[in-house]
Write a structure and sequence with these properties.
9-stranded mixed sheet, Arc Repressor Mutant, subunit A, alpha/beta
Length: 316
């Protein structure tokens, strides 16, 4: 028995297919089948019910694979821990970033990434909050960057990175376009465009405005999207209003900058944080990324002084 055989068996379990596992391993199907057959002969029982479609573990196989997963994870963590002892920012890391942040944040630091950390291989996945948490728990992600605070009973660690201000984006056709700032009370009576429910930014906007669920019933058109830019383009063609996070305002064309309006009163912000599991072996890589992000965003975003923090209602 060797770790490679265990990893092949775990891949078959994950893909529920010998052919897909072989493809992902860049082996022939017969080669990966032979490896698992050899493992089964050694342990004395079959790991998979080969008659089922899709392939699934036997009862004993399920128990064995649970332990095998612990061992494989431990070995990977040991390898990664050894890499941290040199304190080099080297290796691969996969990070999930929420859709209302990733398109605006990633371009800010990506140019300096290779200059600062030439041996760091970063894989960014644009994912909603629930999928980021699921990816962390399944060990598909090393870290996530999302809006906090969130409600959870899971053993997650959070590290605040910066605070992003909320702005209004107002159509030139809107009655209040010529005002430099607007009270939130006016938003209730306007043609308001929001992201889909369950998106953390949408939830924070609802909290910010005190929007009731029945407000949706008064909106004649429902547009389900996770894209802030899509909503901004709709507002451009209507007399509506939408909300923008601070980094998204940096991408607004100069001829449309007058559409960006301050919200009256104390600045309302969302907290952006790094999230990870307590025993994450690549935490030093994630924290190196955080350092680069803090150097890339406007300095005024690094503190929450004299700002009102808007909470999300995400529960995971």
């Amino acid at each position: 028995m060797n770790i490679q055989q265990l990893e092949y068996a775990l891949l078959v379990q994950k893909t529920a297919s010998f052919s897909r596992a072989a493809f992902q391993s860049k082996l022939t199907q017969s080669a990966i089948s032979q490896q698992i057959r050899s493992l089964e002969e050694e342990i004395g029982f079959p790991l998979f019910d080969r008659q089922s479609k899709p392939i699934r573990p036997t009862v004993d196989g399920q128990l064995f694979l649970e332990k095998a997963n612990e061992i494989a994870l431990g070995i990977n963590q040991l390898k990664e821990f050894a890499a941290t002892l040199s304190e080099e920012v080297k290796g691969a890391i996969t990070v999930g970033i929420i859709p209302t942040l990733s398109p605006y944040l990633t371009p800010l630091f990506i140019g300096n990434l290779k200059k600062e950390y030439p041996d760091l291989n970063l894989n960014v996945r644009e994912m909603v909050t629930a999928d980021i948490i699921r990816g962390l728990m399944n060990r598909e992600l090393n870290a996530g960057i999302l809006a906090t605070p969130i409600k959870t009973k899971l053993k997650l660690q959070f590290e605040a990175i910066f605070y992003e201000k909320f702005y209004l984006y107002v159509s030139p056709r809107n009655t209040y376009f010529n005002q430099s700032e607007l009270p939130l009370e006016l938003v209730h009576d306007q043609n308001l465009w929001l992201l889909k429910e369950g998106n953390c930014f949408s939830d924070q906007v609802s909290n910010l405005c005190g929007l009731a669920p029945e407000l949706n019933e008064t909106i004649p058109i429902h547009y389900t999207s996770n894209s802030i830019d899509s909503l901004r383009r709709i507002v451009d063609q209507t007399d509506g209003i939408t909300f923008l996070p601070e980094l998204a305002t940096l991408n607004v064309p100069s001829e449309q900058e007058e559409c960006i309006k301050e919200i009256e009163g104390a600045p309302r912000v969302r907290e952006i944080s790094l999230v990870y599991l307590k025993n994450e072996p690549k935490l030093h890589l994630a924290q190196s990324l955080v350092k680069l992000i803090k150097e890339s965003v406007p300095k005024k975003m690094l503190t929450c002084d004299k700002k009102s923090l808007v909470k999300a209602e995400i529960v995971v």
